[in-house]
Design brief:
- By secondary structure, the protein is of the alpha/beta class.
- It has 3 domains: 6-105 and 197-260, 3-Layer(aba) Sandwich (Adenylosuccinate Synthetase, Chain A, domain 1), CATH 3.40.440; 109-193, Adenylosuccinate Synthetase, subunit A, domain 2 (Orthogonal Bundle); 265-315 and 334-399, Adenylosuccinate Synthetase, Chain A, domain 3, CATH 3.90.170.
- The protein has helices at 19-27, 80-92, 113-123, 136-144, 152-156, 159-173, 177-193, 201-210, 242-249, 282-289, 314-324, 364-367, 386-399; strands spanning 6-11, 32-35, 44-47, 53-56, 69-72, 77-78, 102-105, 109-110, 198-199, 215-218, 256-264, 268-269, 308-309, 312-313, 328-332, 343-352, 355-357, 371-378, 403-407, 415-417.
- The strands form 5 sheets. The chain has a 10-stranded mixed sheet with strand order 9-7-5-2-10-1-11-15-19-20, sandwiched between helices. Strands 14, 16, 17 and 18 form a 4-stranded mixed sheet that branches. A two-stranded antiparallel ribbon has the order 3-4.
- Strand 16 and strand 17 form a beta hairpin.
Length: 421
């Protein structure tokens, strides 16, 4: 008997590619959905069967299926206060959540109120980097300074002890005592309330593998934000690659099976850093972005910030495919390409100092000097037309992997599954 392989879903651009929808689709045929990176700074939106949109930040996207076990892995940076709010929001929309279908790794590091206070202070200063103010950089710093608090402490410490940890940290940072009291109380109460959910996630996932259960690993953020491969310093604090997810879940390389890379046909970006294929035409950009409030509009699920929109960049996408070992592409917002007009553009190379290159520069400074070299293709209204197929074949030939799914709308069933070549 061959080893039970896990399916990995990773973002290939700058986040907001629609990974939640792809995971939601795949979760129906998997027994366990696990996250291994990121924290409350991540935002995945899924559409429930009742038509309501549910924005998930820490909870894995398989939560829509009551029989699916969802695990927040050891590589996640976990915020108890925000997780309680997220659970309440999901339950208010008809999703049932209990320790039977949600588990938190006992070795996941915990976001303290002081981490968020420091993050907010930095974002208000000259050194702002487009953070979501979720405290991620600071909890990650404490983790590697070996000064952090892990989820296991939420089970072993009393509410009073947890309050003191949170309160003392805020006071030391200079927070107002009254405000510190409120935040520390919220933190302690939320932490105690989640103690039942905290488990040995590594044992849990390996037991699931050995018993033949199907495992789905959901990546947060995306390759363009990876701490090592993204455009530093405009990156997140955890690894967003398949390799990073192995560390963050406790799985090993032999467990890697299908790797679904999610990319948006109309990519978007929010925060600092260069976006080479950004649409400069204001009218086309507005049409592409959509109306604020619409399910598929280009505004951050976590921040509500307007996203910068652009044309498909195959140069950057190829690097993401290679590093992650992607076996297939899910190309979302395929239906939105027509918003570009009669034709659309695809970047097939960059021009840097008069030289054409097909490998993205490592530094954002060099990237900012790049101009996209575009291939122009006709748009379409029928997603199964000859023009649409020509576009997909062009993408597949460049990347060397098949496009197995295309997103044709915001609904959970608005997907076309394509046969392998």
């Amino acid at each position: 008997m061959g080893m039970n392989k896990a399916t990995f879903v990773v973002g290939l651009q700058y986040g907001d590619e629609g990974k939640g929808k792809i995971v939601d689709l795949l979760a129906e045929k998997h027994d366990v959905v696990m996250r291994g990176n990121g924290g409350a700074n991540a935002g995945h939106t899924i559409v429930l069967e009742n038509g309501q949109a549910l924005a998930l930040h820490q909870i894995p996207s398989g939560i829509a299926y009551e029989s699916t076990l969802n695990i927040i892995g050891n590589g996640c940076l976990f915020d108890p206060v925000k997780l309680i709010d997220e659970i309440r929001d999901a339950e208010g929309k008809g999703v049932r959540i209990s320790p039977k279908n949600l588990a938190i790794s006992d070795t996941a590091h915990v976001v303290l109120p002081v981490h968020k206070a420091k993050d907010a202070a930095r974002e208000g200063s000259y050194s702002a980097q487009g953070s979501t103010k979720a405290g991620i950089a600071y909890v990650a710093a404490d983790k590697y300074l070996r000064a952090g608090i892990r989820a296991e402490s939420l089970k072993s410490k009393t509410e009073k002890e947890l309050y003191k940890i949170a309160y003392d940290g805020l006071i030391e940072f200079g927070e107002n005592p009254d405000a510190a009291d409120i935040e520390a109380s919220q933190f302690a109460l939320a932490s105690v309330g989640l103690s039942e959910y905290i488990k040995d996630s590594v044992a849990l996932v390996h037991e699931s593998v050995k018993s033949g259960k199907k495992i789905l690993v959901e990546g947060a953020q995306a390759f363009g934000l990876d701490i090592d491969h993204g455009k530093y310093p405009f990156v997140t604090s955890t690894s967003t690659t398949v390799a990073g997810l192995l560390v963050g879940t406790g799985l090993n390389a032999s467990h890697v099976g299908r790797v679904v890379g999610v990319a948006k046909a109309t990519p978007s970006k929010v925060g600092g850093g260069t976006f080479v294929t950004s649409i400069k035409d204001t009218k086309v950009a507005e049409q592409t972005r959509g109306k604020k409030g619409a399910v598929d509009a280009e505004y951050g699920a976590t921040t509500g910030r307007e996203r910068e929109v652009g044309y498909l960049d195959l140069v950057a996408l190829k690097r993401a495919v290679d590093v992650n070992g992607v076996t297939e592409i899910a190309l979302t917002k395929f239906d939105c390409i027509k918003r570009h007009g009669k034709t659309t553009k695809i970047a097939v190379a960059y021009s840097l100092d008069g030289e054409e290159i097909k490998s993205p520069p490592s530094s954002d400074d060099q990237l900012s000097k790049c101009e996209p070299v575009y291939q122009e293709l006709p748009t379409w209204t029928d997603n199964e037309s000859a023009e649409a197929q020509k576009y997909l074949e062009f993408v597949e030939d460049y990347l060397g992997v098949p496009v197995s799914m295309i997103g044709t709308g915001p609904g959970r069933n608005d997907l076309i599954l394509r046969s392998a070549k």
